[in-house]
Automatic annotation (TrEMBL):
Catalytic activity reported: L-proline + NAD(+) = (S)-1-pyrroline-5-carboxylate + NADH + 2 H(+); L-proline + NADP(+) = (S)-1-pyrroline-5-carboxylate + NADPH + 2 H(+)
Primary localisation category: cytoplasm
Function (record text): Catalyzes the reduction of 1-pyrroline-5-carboxylate (PCA) to L-proline.
Gene3D superfamilies on file: NAD(P)-binding Rossmann-like Domain, ProC C-terminal domain-like
Name this polypeptide is given: Pyrroline-5-carboxylate reductase
Length: 271
């Protein structure tokens, strides 16, 4: 599907690097098929040295070469960037924007000919366990969607959705690894508190969340049912869960997702 094709990234930061690492690890593309542009020269040199990809200092040149072009810059940089590359990009190039809050209509206005797809991935794409949600723009047909989905399927799970769900997706799975790292760090600290060595505690915390997540995905059971199977009557787990409920862990997570979703909405309104 990608033979003799170039995939370009404008913006070589955290999410671009995670995608590049995951796509190369999956063997979907060769390093020579990946082109990267970043305003930061050190970043270009780092990505070239670390992954064998080709760094291109001129974003217009990169845009003209790419068959699929990822926009992996901060949301406020997207529109000025599109003004810069609009004349250089070929009309058949599929544009994939991962920018939080930036609407398909705004992207399509700046690039009046290209098929555009808005995606919200997350950083676990770097290890093949990403969660990416794709929304097709008005000029994207199923073939464009399938091509973009093939890239994201190689680095994790993929769901197609309407754009109206993107802010909610951003608040949950886009930002979610951040919440999960805080939870793992907090659990690891807790383990240290009760006497475990730090490294062992981090391993226990991370593997426990990974195992629990895998059980939800593989059994298809409701998480509450799986929780019930851990909570022996009068036992340790229910004593711990009681404290979590008392301290409002559920409400805190609910508010975290709601506030992040709202932030994504606000970013979409900014001009
Ligand atoms: N980090 C994450 O977990 C996720 C990020 N995103 C989205 O990805 C985008 C990038 O986020 P991060 O990678 O976290 O940010 P970042 O700050 O790590 O990367 C942005 C990169 O763009 C470069 N840059 C700035 N202006 C540029 C320009 N005009 N041309 C070329 N390069 C330029 C910067 O030097 C930097 O290396 C954002 O729009 C964000 O909403 C989406 C999903 C997850
Ligand atoms: O924090 C952010 O704005 C980006 C979007 C989702 C994850 N990181």
């Amino acid at each position: 599907m990608f033979t003799n094709q170039y995939v370009g990234f404008i913006g070589g930061g955290a999410i671009a690097e995670a995608l590049i690492r995951g796509i190369l690890q999956a063997g979907l593309l060769q390093p020579a098929q990946i082109l990267v542009n970043d305003v930061n020269e050190n970043r270009r040199a780092f990505l070239e040295a670390s992954y064998g990809v080709t760094a291109i200092a001129d974003s217009q040149l990169l845009a003209a070469k790419a068959d699929i072009l990822f926009l992996t810059v901060k949301p406020n940089v997207v529109e000025p960037l599109l003004t810069t590359i609009a004349k250089a990009i070929l009309p058949q190039t599929i544009v994939v924007s991962v920018a939080a809050g930036v609407r398909l209509a705004a992207l399509e206005e700046k690039l009046p000919n290209n098929p555009i797809i808005r995606v919200m991935p997350n950083t676990p794409v770097a290890v093949g366990e990403g969660m990416s949600v794709l929304a097709l723009g008005s000029r994207s047909c199923s073939e464009h969607g399938e091509k973009a989905a093939a890239l994201f399927n190689a680095v994790g799970k993929t769901v197609m959705a309407g754009e109206e769900l993107m802010d909610a997706v951003t608040g949950l799975s886009g930002s979610g690894p951040g919440y999960a790292f805080v939870l793992i760090d907090a659990l690891a600290d807790a383990g240290v508190r009760v006497g475990l060595p730090r490294q062992m505690s981090i391993l226990l915390a991370a593997q426990t969340l990974l195992g629990a997540a895998k059980m939800v995905l593989e059994t298809g059971e409701h998480p509450a049912k799986l929780r019930d199977a851990v909570t022996s009557p009068g036992g340790t787990t229910i004593a711990g869960i009681h404290v979590m409920e008392q301290r409002g862990v559920r409400a805190a997570l609910s508010d975290a997702v709601a506030v992040a979703c709202e932030r994504s909405r606000e970013m979409g309104k900014r001009k």
